[in-house]
Amino acid sequence: xxxxxxxxxxxxxxxxxxxxxxxxxxxxxxxxxxxxxxxxxxxxxxxxxxxxxxxxxxxxxxxxxxxxxxxxxxxxxxxxxxxxxxxxxxxxxxxxxxxxxxxxxxxxxxxxxxxxxxxxxxxxxxxxxxxxxxxxxxxxxxxxxxxxxxxxxxxxxxxxxxxxxxxxxxxxxxxxxxxxxxxxx
Length: 185
Fold this sequence. Notes:
The protein is α/β, with parallel strands linked by helices. Helix content is 28%, strand content 27%. Helix 3 (88-94) packs parallel to helix 4 (107-115).
């Protein structure tokens, strides 16, 4: 059963999500990768305002390809999440509620997810064109000099994601691996 979620992503919405849930996400999300995350955290460390208030927001780890004529964005597949791990706990402590990417997260990120009632979603790797079709509007907010890694505001409709790590720390990667190993017995 798919769940439908519309942003902003509040703690109440997060609490209803469990590892393994398929979600169709709609509303506003933001994009950033490691270079953008570094700048966000540097701003927080200097006591500066962020270019966008990330409280109750989601960052999608993506560096989209250029858009084709008449399209808001090109292919928009997820990038590997661990590169954001050094910055993610601080952004979650600030109030960010969700991330979309692919791959494993560090114990520090998982602790911050639990501490802040947040969630980590996985997007479909290898389906960048499909992911891009869920984007209805895209605009660069800041860090334009980073090119594909610029900080963007996206409006999405039914972006398909899966809950990988829920707010209790349940991790689909571990659960799925254990279920597979148990099936071999």
